[in-house]
UniProtKB/TrEMBL annotation:
Keywords: Glycosidase, Hydrolase, Signal. It comes from the Bacteria. This is Beta-glucosidase. Gene3D superfamilies: Galactose-binding domain-like, Glycoside hydrolase family 3 C-terminal domain, Glycoside hydrolase, family 3, N-terminal domain, Immunoglobulins.
């Protein structure tokens, strides 16, 4: 069996010198080696016997002011991607090509002979965190780091480490966890692994970036310094301390009234003075808002857009508004980092990607990430000898789950759940039936409200011909006038232009639902005038009272049988307009006309979005759902794959599953009690059907091998070992204190929860989650006993660590994996510490009937809090409770540690 994989802050700190030396050795050996005596160079900064600081200082002396500013400014001219610095050939300064990367290398203009612009689509970062395995983070980052080099990039725009405090956040899946300890545990080996490969890691988004709503229009996070230090900058501290982090990306939002990219508190006082960061800070795309303020605060590079550096910075220096010393400071930081990680000395010529090898690692990560949320009566694993027929249901079961927008990776290949189940069916001689059941998710379905759903295609009919959907006519103007620019059938009214649907950010949905067309004269982002008219008919599935509605931004009207029933006009911002109750007859066709104009942009990157929605009688079941239920009824087992669409620039309006997925699950379960639900989401969803189904698996966004990984778990080839890195609320009304739906919140976002983010907030607010942070079931059973806690630790000197030992036993009849989690209770005194906080964990593989002592080491820092007035970590004396268990609410054993002077 493998030894336990554990993480605690003390382990990272204790290994600091060893890890740092090892990383340095790897970096050095990656560089061309010559003896110091044999070095002959034309330019002194190319002498590899010198260290990074020395080489940077020599090169700085040779640079003109214009060249310095050029180094600090992204090149938007012939740039192959939004984040790119061109080489300065006179001095031999190489390009700095930055890979847009979250779950792999996104397609941004590079091409390889065998794989073109594809790369290995890894599981989402949230799925990586669900492994609770730092070694998996190292493996994962090895693939991403290698492919950054193989696609010709010197800097990786990742990983993400934003604490996921808000479950509505559209980018939650791009980050790791709601907990700073787990975040740090995964970020450190990720950064180490990337930078060992001669690629600079760029940790993002600094800081307190937790929602998309208002992100580029002045969103202002209001929080205290203690919360910043203990929660929102914890992973940065760990990566700086233990992985020599090379670069940081500052975020879009303000913090306490000051934009993150020009905040002296964030960039100077915390990042550099307190955390000791020596690398360079670059902006997110368009996140800078000033010249003087930014450079004075410590922003080193403007990327994405050339507005406040470039010519503006050059003029500011020449006019005496900015000291050239500040420019030199930033240039030295950039050059030092580039020299340290071998950017001047390594070869970044694109090379082939090892497709099969990297795909295998993607599969292993996803297998370890998949989380068994519920498993009544041992519904899983499936017994291949007893299963003769399987119904796979869900419109999105034909493609692996993935993030949309800038995080989407065009995969080298992909295996969907349906692909894998059909292959497994051939192996075991079982028939696999497939029914779509509902419609594919889409960028527009992110704005579905909790009480409505997009009108399904199976109840819509176009003007002429056969098939489902409506006839759509697109006009290159705002008022449906003149010649039609394009006519085609659309399955649903899901209009979406801008960032979430832009061809510039190829996304999964392009292969499922054709993107909204952008007619001639419109920019690629979809800005400008455009309108569309949908015509056809609606067929009511049952007799009763219906409500039609429209939601989005822009002007829209809906007619049913030539009666205007919805009018959404004349207002900015997202609207949600409903009809009066409409009495419809089962099977009757009603003429339907919808007109929409994208004339009220939400923000520049979201010019037009509109969704036609409805609510129906309880017995109203669309034809596609009925067909899925029939397939389930005639099968031994039904596997329903449902998912969300999530991505950058937009938050979810609701936590419910879109595209009438809840109804689909209920109807399939009614037809077949042996119904397994697979959730592919970037975090929490509400589950009104949870009590009705025996088993639920969370696959997150599983990458290109998601299907094979799911099949392995479903049939028991692998034990499910994932554990939730975020909490799941029971409903949208049962969130922890301080957390609000971003669509309903103000531009000022108050972090009133303080350090009680995620599960800490649930506990502090006495709110029961649906599934707790750390939750995850196995196919076997485990028990813990014989807790031993080294019960003394000293504030200064003497004992500075404490060991927590527990015996873990596999009491079941098959091999399995468990995560032993150690939590600390409140600190002594009235210091406002969390009711419970994760302090360390160990992931352990155990054979059937085996037992093993697990040791997790804590240190003084785990027993401390940040005192903003004293500007230091303080360790209060007294007794601290120690809990050991399987989640934040499932603690089996308790002990205590006494902290002494």
């Amino acid at each position: 069996m493998k030894s336990p994989i554990q993480y605690s802050r003390s382990r990272a700190m204790g290994a600091r010198v060893v890890v740092g030396a090892a990383a340095a050795a790897l970096i050095i050996t990656a560089l061309p080696t010559t003896s110091a005596a044999a070095v002959v160079v034309d330019d002194p900064w190319m002498d590899t016997s010198l260290n990074g600081d020395q080489r940077a200082a020599l090169l700085l002396q040779a640079m003109t002011l214009e060249e310095k500013v050029e180094l600090m400014t992204g090149d938007q001219g012939e740039a192959p991607a939004a984040f790119y610095n061109a080489p300065i050939e006179r001095l031999g300064i190489p390009e700095l090509s930055m890979a847009d990367a979250t779950a792999g290398i996104a397609a941004r203009g590079w091409l390889l002979p065998e794989t073109a612009d594809t790369a290995t689509a890894m599981p989402a970062n949230l799925a990586l965190a669900a492994t609770w395995d730092p070694q998996r983070a190292r493996d994962y980052a090895g693939v991403v780091g290698d492919e950054a080099r193989q696609t010709g990039h010197e800097l990786l725009l990742g990983p993400n480490s934003d604490p996921t405090r808000n479950p509505f956040w559209g980018r939650q899946a791009e980050s790791a966890s709601e907990d700073p300890e787990l975040n740090s545990a995964m970020v450190v080996p990720f950064v180490q692994s990337v930078q060992e490969r001669g690629v600079i890691a760029n940790l993002k988004h600094y800081a307190a970036y937790t929602q998309e709503t208002f992100r580029g229009t002045g969103q202002n996070v209001i929080t205290d310094e203690r919360t910043l230090r203990e929660v929102h900058t914890a992973a940065y501290e760990a990566a700086i301390r233990d992985a020599d982090l090379g670069s940081v990306m500052c975020a879009f939002n303000k913090v306490n009234g000051v934009y993150a990219c020009e905040s002296p508190l964030l960039l100077d006082e915390i990042l550099r003075q307190q955390l000791g960061f020596e690398g360079f800070v670059l902006t997110d795309f368009g996140a800078s808002h000033s010249t003087e303020g930014s450079i004075e605060a410590g922003l080193d590079m403007e990327t994405g857009l050339d507005i406040f550096y470039g010519d503006a910075l050059l003029a500011a220096v020449q006019e005496g508004r900015v000291s050239e010393d500040l420019v030199d400071r930033s240039v030295l930081r950039i050059l030092r980092t580039m020299f340290t990680f071998g950017i001047f000395d390594n070869d970044y010529t694109p090379t082939a990607i090892p497709v099969a090898e990297n795909g295998a690692i993607a599969r292993e990560v996803e297998e370890d990430a998949i989380t068994l949320l519920k498993n009544d009566d041992q519904a899983l694993p499936l017994n291949a000898e007893e299963v003769d027929s399987i119904a796979v249901i869900g419109a999105d079961a034909t493609i692996p789950g993935a993030l949309g927008g800038s995080a989407y990776v065009l995969p080298t290949y992909e295996v969907s759940l349906l692909d894998a189940m059909r292959a497994r069916g051939r192996e075991i001689g079982a028939e696999v039936r497939y029914e779509q059941g509902n419609d594919p998710v889409h960028g527009a379905t992110m704005i579905e409200p909790a009480d409505m759903t997009a009108i399904p295609s199976s109840v819509l009919r176009p003007e002429r011909g056969i098939g489902d959907g409506l006839t759509a006519r697109y006009f290159p103007n705002a008022d449906w006038s003149g010649a039609v620019g394009l006519t085609r059938n659309e399955g649903q009214v899901l209009y979406d232009t801008g960032f979430t649907a832009s061809p510039a950010f190829a996304n999964l949905i392009a292969f499922q639902t054709p993107p909204t067309p952008i007619l001639a004269g419109l920019s690629p982002a979809g800005t400008g005038d455009q309108s569309v008219r949908y015509t056809g008919s609606l067929v009511a599935p049952s007799t009763g009272s219906y409500t039609l509605g429209g939601t989005g931004w822009g002007d829209a009207r809906v007619w049913l049988d030539d009666q205007l029933v919805v009018e959404m006009v004349g207002q900015d911002g997202r609207q949600d307009v409903r009809s009066a109750p409409l009495e419809l007859q089962a099977g009757q066709e009603y003429s339907l006309r919808v007109e929409y104009s994208q004339n009220h942009p939400l923000v520049p990157l979201q010019p037009g979005t509109f969704l036609l929605e409805w609510s129906t009688p309880e017995d109203s079941v669309p034809p596609s759902v009925r067909e899925a239920a029939q397939a389930a009824e005639s099968s031994d087992v039904a596997v329903v794959y449902v998912r969300t669409y999530e991505g950058e620039e937009r938050d979810r309006v609701s936590l419910k599953l879109p595209q009438n997925a809840d109804q689909l699950i209920r109807e399939v379960r009614a037809a077949n009690p042996n119904t397994i639900v697979v959730l592919a989401s970037g975090g929490a969803v509400t589950m009104p059907w949870l009590d009705q189904v025996p088993s639920v698996l969370q696959s997150y966004y599983g990458g290109q091998e998601e299907g094979n990984a799911l099949a392995s778990i479903l049939f028991g080839d692998e034990d499910p070992s994932g554990h939730l890195p975020v909490s799941y609320p029971q409903s949208e009304d049962q969130l922890p204190p301080g957390v609000l739906n971003p669509w309903l919140d103000d531009i000022d976002v108050e972090f009133t929860e303080g350090v009680n983010v995620g599960y800490r907030g649930y506990l502090a607010g006495n709110v029961d989650p649906l599934f707790a942070f750390g939750h995850g079931l196995s196919y076997t059973d485990f028990s813990m006993d014989r807790l031993r806690v080294g019960n003394n630790i000293r504030v200064t000197g003497g004992d500075d660590t404490v060991d927590v030992r527990v015996r873990l036993s596999n009491t079941g009849d098959r091999d399995g994996t468990e995560v032993v989690q150690v939590y600390l209770g409140p600190l002594p005194g009235n210091v406002g510490s969390p009711p419970l906080k994760l302090a360390g964990f160990a992931k352990v593989d155990l054979g059937a009937g085996d037992r093993q002592q697990v040791r997790i080491t804590l240190d003084r820092r785990d027993f401390s809090y940040w005192d903003a007035e004293a500007n230091e970590w303080v360790v209060p004396t007294g007794q601290v409770a120690v809990y050991v268990g399987r989640s934040a609410v499932d603690v089996e054993l308790a002990g205590a540690v006494r902290v002494r002077n």
